[in-house]
């Protein structure tokens, strides 16, 4: 069998441990040279697995009956593009010198096998043999999977925000608020799953952008929004505390007590949200429209409170319920009437201005 039909047994050291820890430099060609490199590597670092790979390659050569040669390729300590480029150059040198017909690949783990597609593009691969100490095979494979995962998190901004940013916020909240932080974290996770589950991403993004835009317009708007939000949260808290004290009651009664305690705060919250929206407007030509909205908030608030009070105390709350309905209709009707009168006056003003401009134009034409 001629040299042109030689099979080479390639041992790959992608991170160049051999070059860093011994006097040998890749490519190392020949059984004698490879054996000396493996012995020197073990003497300098008995725990290095690259020596096992070289001995594994020598064992395969002894088992083969056909013409073969052992070759060790060494890369670079900077594993990646630089090391793969060095390995490609060494491989080209070995092919031009030995002119092999195919190759058997011997590695010591998953990382060295990244070079296999490069070898396969230049030379047929007969077999791949992984030489790993038995008790560390699963551990080493898991190590490289974990290493790639951590590297992806560190380099990918989107992944780092999820796997590093969110846990860090959770840790800070737990450190500051203790047990209450878990409720906030669970609330956040629930809201996220709700948005994802019902595909509300676009609506949530638009709402967030509109809220930020409103808050950035003026300090009054920001203050009004914060106050309104505080009253909303206060209403929920007060209602919840009252429910906790009334858990022995029926479910409907418990809900009514919750609403009775929370409605005043919810109403104040709506008022400040209304004030927030009003303050964000740059022009106030249609101010009566916003006053009508305020009247609606007032009417709904007193009616809701009176209704809940009536359901809890039917004998005492009936008079307040009728009074709230009457007061609500009066307040809304009054502001709607004012808004309509203002709209009529505005239309008349526009028509008068149009007639004035038309008359002025005719006078100019007559003078000409």
State the secondary-structure class: alpha/beta
- Kindly state the number of beta strands: 5
Quote the distance from N terminus to C terminus: 115 Å
Which strand order does the major sheet show? 2-3-1-4-5
Overall average pLDDT: 76
Number of DSSP helices?
13
Rounded to an integer in angstroms, the radius of gyration calculated over CA atoms is 40 Å
Strand residue content: 5-15%
Major sheet characteristics: 5 strands, mixed
The amount of helix comes to over 70%
Ranges with pLDDT <50 over ≥5 residues? none
Series of H and E elements:
EHEHHEHEHEHHHHHHHH
User: What sort of overall outline do the alpha carbons produce when their principal axes are compared?
Assistant: elongated
How does this structure look, described?
The protein is α/β, with parallel strands linked by helices. It has a domain at 3-142. Helices cover 72% and strands 8% of the residues. It is built from 13 helices and five strands. It has helices spanning 17-21, 31-44, 50-63, 81-98, 116-120, 137-155, 157-177, 179-197, 201-215, 219-244, 251-279, 287-312, 314-367, and strands at 7-13, 28-29, 68-74, 102-107, 125-130. It has a five-stranded mixed beta sheet, with helices on both faces. Strand 4 (102-107), helix 5 (116-120) and strand 5 form a beta-alpha-beta unit. It is elongated, with a radius of gyration of 40 Å.
């Amino acid at each position: 069998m001629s040299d042109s039909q030689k099979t080479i047994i390639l041992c790959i050291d992608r991170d160049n441990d051999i070059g860093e820890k011994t006097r040998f430099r890749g490519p190392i060609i020949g059984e004698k040279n490879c054996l000396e490199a493996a012995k020197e590597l073990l003497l300098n670092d008995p725990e290095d697995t690259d020596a096992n790979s070289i001995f594994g390659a020598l064992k395969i050569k002894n088992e083969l009956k056909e013409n073969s040669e052992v070759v060790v390729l060494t890369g670079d300590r900077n594993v990646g593009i630089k090391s793969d480029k060095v390995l490609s150059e060494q491989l080209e040198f070995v092919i031009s010198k030995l002119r092999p017909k195919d190759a058997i690949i011997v590695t010591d783990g998953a990382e060295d096998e990244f070079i296999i597609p490069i070898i396969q593009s230049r030379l047929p691969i007969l077999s791949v043999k992984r030489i790993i100490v038995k008790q560390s095979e699963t551990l080493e494979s898991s190590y490289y999977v974990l290493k790639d995962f951590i590297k992806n998190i560190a380099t990918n901004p989107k992944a780092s925000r999820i796997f590093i940013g969110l846990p860090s916020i959770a840790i800070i909240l737990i450190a500051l608020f203790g047990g209450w932080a878990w409720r906030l974290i669970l609330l956040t996770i629930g809201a996220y799953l709700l948005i994802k589950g019902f595909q509300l991403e676009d609506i949530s993004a638009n709402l967030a952008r509109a809220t930020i835009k409103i808050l950035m317009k003026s300090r009054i708007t920001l203050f009004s929004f914060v106050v309104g939000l505080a009253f909303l949260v206060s209403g929920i808290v007060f209602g919840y505390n009252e429910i906790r004290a009334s858990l022995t009651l029926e479910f409907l009664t418990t809900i009514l007590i919750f609403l009775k305690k929370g409605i005043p705060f919810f109403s104040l919250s709506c008022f400040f949200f209304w004030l927030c929206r009003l303050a964000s407007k740059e022009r106030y030509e249609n101010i009566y429209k916003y006053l009508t909205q305020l009247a609606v908030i007032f009417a709904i608030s007193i009616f809701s409170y009176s209704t809940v009070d009536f359901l809890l105390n039917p004998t005492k709350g009936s008079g307040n319920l009728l009074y709230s309905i009457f007061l609500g209709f009066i307040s809304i009707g009054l502001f709607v009437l004012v808004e309509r009168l203002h709209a009529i006056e505005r239309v008349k003003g526009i028509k008068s201005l149009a007639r004035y401009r038309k008359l002025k134009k005719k006078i100019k034409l007559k003078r000409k």
